[in-house]
Amino acid sequence: MYKHFGLQRLTPTIGALVSGIDLCAPLSDKAFAELHAAWMEHLVLFFREQALTPDQHIALGQRFGELEVHPDAPCAHGIPELMVIHTDKDSRRNNGENWHSDVSSREEPPMASILHLTHVPEEGGDTLFANMYAAYDALSEPMQGLLDQLTAHHDHHQSLGSWRLQYDVPSADHPVVRVHPVTGKKALFVNAVFTEKIRGMSWPESDALLQFLFEHIKHPEFHCRFSWQANSVALWDNRCAQHLAVWDYYPNSRSGHRVTVKGDRPLPTTP
Ligand code: SIN
Predict the structure, then answer these.
(1) Ligand 1 centre distance from Cα of residue 240 (Å)
(2) Given CB 3.0 to 4.6 Å as the disulfide criterion, which of 47, 80, 225, 257 pairs with 69?
(3) How does DSSP classify residue 83?
(4) Strands 16-19, 44-47: parallel, antiparallel or unpaired by DSSP?
């Protein structure tokens, strides 16, 4: 089906493993267009045996668009756009251990993230991904109709816990259901890490509805699960997918780098 690589789905709903492509080298326009089309279809693409250098990782990200710097995470090799992902026996938290899309608290939340792990535990440390088109489609029509009208406030402070006062971090309002700018499909766009409140509702109403949605996206039929090896890469679309990094490998270590591609303002379902 594809000319420039092989592809194997992980589940019928989300995720595909791509083989026979070298991400360390520049992608031709035709290979990139085909890869982009596969990404739009599967939401998350996985690759094995990609020994990316920091510069190659940055160049790969820039193929998708302008890169952004994470508001509070450390960077590697003096490159602000190269975010460190690292957990070990001294870690007090694991980055991304609850369902989220990356930095949805920005006015223009990131379009894509590309994670390259260089060191993985012998067992565990998987990442789960969830399809937010499927989560929206599975709701009843009356619930879809309600959510289509709503806006929610996203706040980065929610994710920082006790560090919250040390950073000047983004916050923004977004439609609860966004229209993907490429596929035109509707995706649920609230998450447990950043979404604080539904505008126009009382706190109890908003908490109840958000809690229902946060539980709803946990249904396993929306998910795939990726088991990392050293030099695996994951490319995900933050506009229509959420992810969760499982911290089941303590006290072992897991490390790598992420680059994050700038996105645009989420489109509402109604003008
Ligand atoms: C993240 O970017 O949220 C971390 C994902 C992971 O470490 O698997």
Answers:
(1) 16
(2) 80
(3) E
(4) parallel
- Is residue 198 within 8 A of residue 206, CB to CB? The reply is yes
Amino acid, res. 8: Q
CA of residue 143 to ligand 1 center, whole Å: 30
Q: Note the pLDDT tens digit of each residue in 31-81.
A: 999 999 999 999 999 999 999 999 999 999 999 999 999 888 889 999 999
Per-residue pLDDT tens over the stretch 227-247:
999 999 999 999 999 999 999
pLDDT given at position 7:
98
Q: Whose CA is nearest to atom 3 of ligand 1?
A: 96
| Cβ neighbour number for residue 29 with a 10 Å cutoff | 7
| Residue 115, strand partner residues | 234, 258
Residue 255 in contact with ligand 1 by CB distance below 6 A: no
Probe residue for ligand 1, chosen from 116, 232, 258 as the CB with the greatest number of ligand atoms within 8 Å: 258
Range 118-154 burial, b when 16+ CB lie within 10 A, else e? eebbeeebebbbbbbbbbbebbeeeebeebbebebbb
**pLDDT average, residue stretch 210-225:** 98
User: What confidence score (pLDDT) does residue 95 get?
Assistant: 87
Helix, coil or strand: residue 80: strand
CB contact at 8 A, 222 and 30:
no
245 pocket-lining for ligand 1 (C-beta < 6 Å): yes
Mean pLDDT for 204-214 is: 98
